[in-house]
Task: inverse folding
């Protein structure tokens, strides 16, 4: 017999016990609102916890196993739901990250312990190899094998670096198998994110966090020790003894390339010490990044502390991509050249201009996004109204294309143009799939005005109507996201233009600043209806005066847009005047 529950403003709906609910089910509440079940957690012998996704937010709630729950849909994809926190009534935001260590998987892909720890805990077991079994990134080939954590982390850093140009957030899933010297293996998956580029050992930290969680060392805030242990027992079948064994694993197996501790060695007599010439052991390559107006220093070996301090003192910064960088200037170029006589091998130093090239992306493909005659006919048969869906589809995608072209016309920066085109093509593909999904759903579920009311299954009809409404909402959200992303691109273009202007301003004024003089005079200034006597600074027809809280520049009685702020100083205004005067002379 099918069980039902009464929901306010909905009526009787089919229901199942909470113990039968699975991730991917869609739960209905009073007044018809719904939530996607992302996780089902065994809290106690009689109680569960649900992590649900509702209205763009995550919620954590307790529920008894015998409580009836209305489920209106199932088998939804929850693989991309990996929240760090969820809201719980009375406690606010609580940590739920440990429930998503393996994304959608509820259990690890291998046994937690598969070696006799007693035989190995007397010494640290080093790494044998790491195999990347698969990856969503084309930068890591299938079954790539490396022999050190450093090499593995280099691949992870390359994937994270490749994600830096993306505006949309997300992760790149990558599978791996770690094998140690004694034959023990760990198989897992790391979801690479942009911030991994700032981690020294992302894959080692990932595995360490996993084992610390199983060892009972990562109890989420808001949980008691008993709740934490019950979770480990229910999900991973780990008891107190198992937790201790995992701790022994953490103390036994190396998760980085640090060598095991060696016995203390006797000091070597000074006469036997071999002196190594640093100049022979290290070389440097200097590259000029013309696109970013930068200079990059690549060392073949780690530079000495003195060299590193010298670089830092002169504006150089270390990049996780493996080089030191700074803006091009006489000072930084002189520093690079001076290294030839200290730490770099002279004949290996080179100055190379390597402009970054981006692959061409063809966005003129609107003919691909259309509605077939067969689908159009089915839609006409399922509706009382004859809508030209072909035209509607064409107009929609022409509008999408037009808005992206507007952004592309605002910049000559190849990097930004490439990212805009890349995002545009990705969005058009995803939106087209949603568009066809909506049309097919509508064609397969005609309204009652077409089919008549006789024999209609009202429960199924209402369910299909709600699904269609959800699709429309999702399509609307996608379009809003598209407009927000384009707005972010415009902001980025504005920042690039401002940086380019400041660089031009600095290059022009650096050699004329200090060689010119401004005359000062107190004048009657009429600005926006306010007449006041102010001190002015004059140069070649330009006038600087401070009024309405900031310095302003005038020429022939008219204000010039300078973007000076209330925090800008007089020197900033003078530099801008020198820049304008220089540009006028060039134009003449």
Result:
């Amino acid at each position: 017999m099918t069980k039902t529950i009464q929901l306010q403003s909905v009526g009787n709906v089919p229901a199942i016990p909470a113990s039968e609910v699975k991730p991917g089910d869609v739960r209905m509440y009073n007044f018809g609102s719904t939530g996607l079940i992302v996780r089902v957690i065994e809290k106690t012998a009689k109680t569960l916890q649900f992590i649900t996704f509702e209205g763009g937010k995550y919620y954590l709630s307790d529920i008894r196993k015998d409580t009836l729950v209305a489920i209106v849909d199932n088998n939804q994809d929850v693989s991309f739901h990996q929240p760090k926190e969820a809201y719980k009534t009375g406690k606010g935001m609580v940590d739920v990250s440990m429930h998503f260590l393996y994304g959608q998987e509820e259990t690890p892909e291998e046994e937690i312990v598969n070696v006799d720890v007693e035989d190995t805990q007397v010494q640290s077991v080093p790494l044998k190899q790491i195999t990347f079994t698969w990856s969503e990134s084309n930068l890591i080939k299938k079954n790539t094998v490396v022999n050190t954590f450093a090499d593995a982390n280099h691949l992870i850093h390359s994937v994270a670096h490749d994600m830096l140009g993306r505006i949309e957030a997300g992760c790149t899933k990558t599978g791996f198998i770690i094998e140690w010297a004694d034959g023990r293996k760990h198989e897992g998956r790391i979801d690479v994110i942009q911030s991994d580029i700032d981690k020294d050992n992302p894959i080692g930290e990932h595995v360490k966090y996993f084992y610390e969680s199983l060892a009972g060392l990562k109890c989420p805030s808001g949980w008691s020790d008993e709740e934490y242990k019950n979770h480990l027992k229910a999900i991973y079948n780990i008891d107190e003894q198992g937790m201790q064994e995992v701790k022994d694993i953490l103390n036994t197996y190396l998760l980085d390339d640090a060598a095991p501790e060696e016995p203390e060695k006797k000091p070597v007599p000074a006469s036997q010490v071999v002196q190594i010439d640093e100049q022979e052991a290290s070389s440097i390559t200097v590259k000029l990044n013309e696109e970013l107006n930068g200079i990059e220093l690549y060392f073949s070996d780690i530079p000495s502390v003195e060299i590193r301090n010298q670089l830092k003192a002169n504006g150089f910064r270390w990049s996780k991509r493996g080089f030191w960088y700074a803006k091009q200037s006489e000072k930084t170029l002189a520093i690079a050249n001076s290294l030839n006589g200290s730490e770099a091998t002279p004949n290996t130093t080179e100055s190379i201009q390597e402009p970054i090239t981006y692959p061409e992306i063809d966005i003129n493909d609107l003919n691909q996004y259309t509605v077939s005659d067969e689908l159009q006919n089915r839609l006409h048969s399922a509706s009382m109204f004859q809508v030209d869906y072909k035209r509607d589809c064409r107009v929609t995608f022409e509008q999408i294309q037009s808005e992206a072209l507007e952004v592309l016309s605002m910049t000559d920066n190849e990097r930004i143009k490439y990212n805009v085109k890349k995002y545009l093509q990705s969005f058009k593909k995803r939106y087209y799939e949603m568009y066809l999904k909506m049309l097919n759903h509508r064609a397969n579920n005609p309204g009652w005005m077409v089919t008549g009311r006789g024999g209609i299954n009202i429960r199924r009809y209402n369910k299909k109507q709600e699904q269609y409404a959800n699709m429309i909402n999702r399509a609307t959200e996608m379009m809003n996201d598209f407009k927000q992303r384009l707005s972010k691109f415009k902001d980025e273009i504005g920042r690039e233009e401002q940086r380019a202007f400041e660089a031009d301003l600095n290059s022009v004024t650096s050699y004329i600043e200090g060689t010119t003089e401004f005359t000062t005079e107190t004048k009657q200034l009429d600005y926006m209806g306010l007449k006041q006597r102010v001190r002015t600074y004059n140069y070649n027809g330009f006038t600087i005066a401070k009024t309405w809280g900031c310095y302003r520049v005038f020429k022939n009685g008219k204000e010039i847009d300078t973007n000076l702020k209330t925090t800008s100083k007089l020197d900033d205004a003078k530099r801008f005047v020198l820049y304008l005067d220089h540009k006028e002379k060039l134009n003449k």
